[in-house]
Amino acid sequence: MQAELIDIRNHMAQFPPFDEMPEELIDQVVGGVEVEYFRAGTQILEFGQDNTWLYYIRSGAVEIFRRSGELYNRIGEGDIFGQFGLLMNKTVRFPARALEDTLVYRIPEATFQYLFENDDGFADFVETEDRSRLRSALSRREKSNDLMTSKVTRLISRAPVSAPCTVRLQEAARIMTDQGVSALLLMDESGENPMLKGIITDRDLRTRAVTEALPSETPISDIMSEGLITIRASAYIFEAMLMMLHNNVHHLPVMDKDEVRGVIALSDIVKYESQSSLYLVSNIYHQNDVKGLKKISRDVPDTFVRMVNEDANSHMIGSAMAGIGRSFTQRLLELGEEKLGPPPIPYCFMALGSMARDEQLVVTDQDNAMILDDSFVPEEHDEYFLALAKFVSDGLAECGYTYCTGEIMATNPKWRQPLRVWKGYFTDWIENPKAEALLNSNIFFDLDGIHGNTGFAEELKALVAEKASHSQRFLTLLARNALNRTPPLGFFRTFVLEEDGQHRKTFNLKRRGTAPLSDLIRVHALACGSRAQNSFERLKVIGQTKLLLEDDLGNLRDALEFISIVRIRHQALAIEDGRKPDNNVRPEDLSPFERSHLKDAFQVVSNAQKFLRFRYNAQVGRNAQ
Amino acid sequence: MPSNPEGQSNTPKSTWPEQYRELAQQAKSPLLKAFYEAGCVDPDMPMSDVPLVALDFETTGLDPNEHSIVSVGLVPFTLGGIQLGRCWHQVVRPQLPLHQTSIEVHGITHSDIDKAPDLNEVLDKLFSYLNGRIPVVHYRDIERPFLNVALQWRLGEGIRFPVIDTMAIEAHLHPDRRPTRWQRLLGKKPVSIRLADSRQRYGLPHYASHNALIDALATAELLQAQIHHHFGPNTPIKDLWL
To answer: Which residues are in the CBS domain (chain A) (predicted)?
Structure first.
């Protein structure tokens, strides 16, 4: 850089990420700059256009848009844009338009890559900080619409409406009508301070009172829901959203210690974020036939892409997608019960695998099972449950959840059994483990009751948690199975690619990345008696037992998040391009940033597998009776 | 004023390429011959395609016959981009004594000058920037006449070329920039067409420092802004050069 251009260097040196950069490096950057002027209203970057520049705003203001045309951010002097495209595949992901007359400094891609590789501050800024910077910029706007940064208390619009749990049905209904609320909190007032005891909702009144023609004098405590799921006042809206999705509840009391601050309803969040996955979920419950469900299932990929573009993390996306899948299943079960009549004996419908783990994406098949009450008599009852299972399974297939090729579905009589048989299955898997059998039953160790008497599923979880940690041999074999799939890393950190078949020259991010990770996390989780199903939750539980070092846990968490998010973005891009999403990635489609970090992440998986082999004595060849 | 290049303003604007061909025949200095042989762009060429070079001289005064060049700043560019890495700034030793007043203007001191080469020694480089490009200046009565006189002294012959004058463009856009007495009484302020003031009207940033290079850069940016606001990238160059 010519010394006379010091004005330009001094300007850049005021703003991150250049403010932390050595002067000589900024001088080098300035030496590569091209200056360009854009009149207000001019399009600077078009969606999908090739872009090989990072833009720095010297003066003026620029609006950044989503592909949909919706405003994403407004940035000004000293801000940069265009980096998303450079990090991805050099095509513009966020169109940009000059809001005011704007002078930009264009920094060539070669300089960008050089800085990325040689200046940690710069790399951190453009890959991570930038998101939070964007996020904070967004929250500065008058109407923040970010679920990640707003607290649930924002959604509370009135003091909670409650009644003693001794009131009668009619009185409860009258209070709800007078106050115009869709849920009434019921308090136990026998003690010194009233305690939250239960809740009754509009829907409960319809399904439990009106349809059953209960007398208006029925004590409300007979039909209220107890064992309430609540949320703490300091939680973020997205946590409330996850909680509603996971538990299929539409009202959450917001608690400040023991005191109820208010109630938030699903509709509050939907109003707040009308594009959210919850909106889709609430829509699912409004459908009255498979045709209707099939129709709205076409919105699932869009919801997925939207969450990706809104920078949701993999846990949020996985939970939201699982919540949507769960809602389809639940609604199908409700419709099935309407069609076939009420179930003759209690039962629990179980989700298995990624749905149970809250780690579902868009490309997914159905894995489910039924636990029946022990009073089950096949000749009397099985016709009903087979019909119900078939109705749900076919319905799910209509909605895009393909049949499980391994026949792990409630339609398979083997997986439609009374609780005692299920307990026998799990006891046998754990106490008399056989490698082959375990390979096929792996999926049952991620389970979640989603409809009916979910207590049955909890009993199975308890049994697994108790027995698994005591069976060394079970853990050894499970660990050995978890080592079957290795990350695609060769010598000198090169990627090992598939050599043949349709997916030649690619590697599979699920089979070689997220699956080995969730497998090995499951082994540790079972070893420490955890009942958690989600991999991130499992890592938390493992952390409490000191089974793994804090550093290793952090690495595993980061690796899982990173591989998951690359996989998620890969699928979102495919959807946006109108291609069929899959898990097969070509290394050349990744940005240098993604490539380098993926290698780090795979290295973490590889190290964790080594530790697993050592910890559970799981060398192949030994213990392989 | 002897051999004032402003005499050129009487020649039809569209004849520059012909004039270059003629001048190439007449020129004795190899540098000038090469300059003219590099040619002048077609008068109908759209501005978006024209290779340009912003040019700014710091001088010891305003009269080319009495004062000297102390520094040159050159910024090659096009409408689509200004490459900062290709900018050039050079302090040169003036033939005439440096006055204290001019030091205050451009900040170039005696010690800077003492180490500096004569313009003669950097002519090769200067022409490597000028050849094939149309110079852009803010106020055409400095750079072109000063270069003309300087070359007459050193090469024994002057130079002629078209320029784009960003100040003339501003003057053209603000014909009534000096308010009448009536208007002044009503509070109307004169419109300044100085470089910094003109830039402000286009939202261009303020530069704290002043030197030939930053001023040349400022001029290049101003031309980009003027064209985007008032003319458009398809405007033929013949509409703008003087």
So the answer is: 156-216, 224-280
What domains does chain A contain, in order, with CATH numbers? 3-140 (2.60.120.10), 469-615 (1.20.120)
Among candidates A276, A188, A267, which has minimal Cα distance to A228?
Answer: A188
**Burial annotation A144-163 (CB, 10 A radius, 16+ → b, else e):** eebbbebbbbebbeeebbbb
pLDDT for A591 equals 72
Average pLDDT score over residue span A134-149: 40
In the structure encoding, which two tokens stand for residue A62, read together? 């620029």
What residues of A are in contact with residue B87 (Cβ under 8 Å)?
2, 4-5
Mean pLDDT of A404-417: 93
Give B101-117 pLDDT, tens digit per residue.
566 656 677 777 777 89
Say whether B203 and A11 touch across the interface (CB within 8 A).
Answer: no
Question: Chain A partners of B108 at a C-beta cutoff of 8 Å?
Answer: none
Task: Tell me the whole-structure pTM to 2 decimals.
Answer: 0.53
The structure tokens listed for A505 are 């020259």
Residues 6 or more apart whose CB falls under 8 angstroms from that of B12 comprise none
Per-residue pLDDT tens over the stretch B113-139: 777 898 999 999 999 999 999 999 999
The answer to whether B208 contacts A7, with C-beta atoms less than 8 Å apart, is: yes
Q: Are strands B134-137 and B52-59 parallel, antiparallel or unpaired?
A: parallel
For A8, which of B81, B84, B224 is closest by C-beta distance? B84
Residues of B whose CB is below 8 A from A59: 203-205
Chain B interface mutation, best of A1, A7, A12, highest count of B Cβ atoms under 10 Å: A7
Cβ-Cβ contacts under 8 Å between A and B: the total is: 80
Given a cut of 90, is residue A298 above it in pLDDT?
Answer: no
CB of A8 less than 8 A from some CB of B: yes
